[in-house]
Design goal:
This protein has 10 helices and 9 strands. By secondary structure, it is of the alpha/beta class. It folds into 2 domains: 7-134, Nitrogenase molybdenum iron protein domain (Rossmann fold); 141-259, 3-Layer(aba) Sandwich (Rossmann fold). Strands 5, 6, 7, 8 and 9 form a 5-stranded mixed sheet that branches. A 4-stranded parallel sheet has the order 2-1-3-4, with helices on both faces.
Length: 262
């Protein structure tokens, strides 16, 4: 395992000095990293978290976008774990300029990326076997969900993640892939990432199901034609993903697509 981790660190241009000494004090700069560490049974090593963390007995060092660098330094971390997609580049550079050890996890554009980041954390924390076990269990259950709707036509679906402007989910996102596994067909899968769209284009593509993903207070949906089913999803469940979150999300989407009656 250690040889594989050395290879990964070299591949990411991270100096081998990162391997020196034990990792006992971790500052997590993202909720999904915090959740992943919890899944791997290493909560005791966490000394700092961001807002909206799943644990509330640790010092908060700011939000994912606004990090209190002085607070981070005061916690004397052995390692800071950040995300390329969520944390500002200038914050990462500042922390490194202070001689702090920072590892930045890659963007999560697919479920595979979620799995790879989780496995990488497992390697860092010497919990690779546990990480692999969790990933394999999730993969097995995802396959069983696909078997449930096998032979049926995927359901045309629209996913709204913003209202002003109107923003949806395209390909190169875990949520698009989760929808496909659950038996849905994203009507904007031909677009990339999180494109802005026109309302008229939504109804021209005739979705049968309409998901609204929102944080806290529900954002307003478009007024749909008769027969289109609307469901609200919590952004907290779909924005910061671990392998277990992927499974739970797919199970929920499958329920709304195939089991919910209204």
């Amino acid at each position: 395992m250690r040889q594989r981790l050395i290879f990964l660190l070299l591949f990411l241009f991270i100096p081998l000095s990162f391997l020196a000494g034990e990792i006992n004090r971790i500052v997590s700069l993202s909720p999904d990293i915090t959740k992943s560490i919890l899944l791997l049974g290493e909560e005791k090593k966490i000394v700092g978290v961001t807002r909206y963390s799943p644990i509330h007995n640790k010092p908060v060092i700011g939000s994912i976008l606004q990090i209190n660098i002085e607070k981070v330094v005061s916690l004397k971390p052995d390692l800071i774990l950040a995300t390329k997609e969520g944390n500002p580049k200038e914050v990462i550079e500042k922390l490194r300029s202070l001689k702090l050890k920072v590892i930045v996890l890659n963007e999560q554009k697919s479920i595979g990326d979620v799995f790879r980041n989780f496995l990488y954390l497992g390697e860092i924390l010497d919990k690779e076997r546990e990480a692999e076990k969790i990933i394999n269990q999730v993969k097995e259950k995802l396959e069983k969900i696909k078997e449930k709707w096998k032979g049926k036509t995927p359901i045309p679906t629209f996913i709204q993640v913003g209202i002003s402007p109107l923003v949806t989910v395209g390909s190169d996102t875990p949520l698009n892939e989760m929808l496909e596994i659950a038996g849905g067909k994203n009507i904007f899968s031909h677009l990339k990432r999180y494109p802005r769209i026109n309302p008229e284009e939504v109804w021209r593509r005739n979705p049968r199901v309409y998901f609204v993903v929102s944080m806290g207070k529900k954002i307003s949906p478009l007024f749909p034609p008769r027969g289109v089913k609307i469901y609200f999803l919590s952004a907290e469940d779909f924005a910061s993903l671990t392998p277990v979150d992927v499974l739970k999300g797919v199970e929920l989407i499958y329920h709304y697509l195939w089991e919910e009656k209204n």
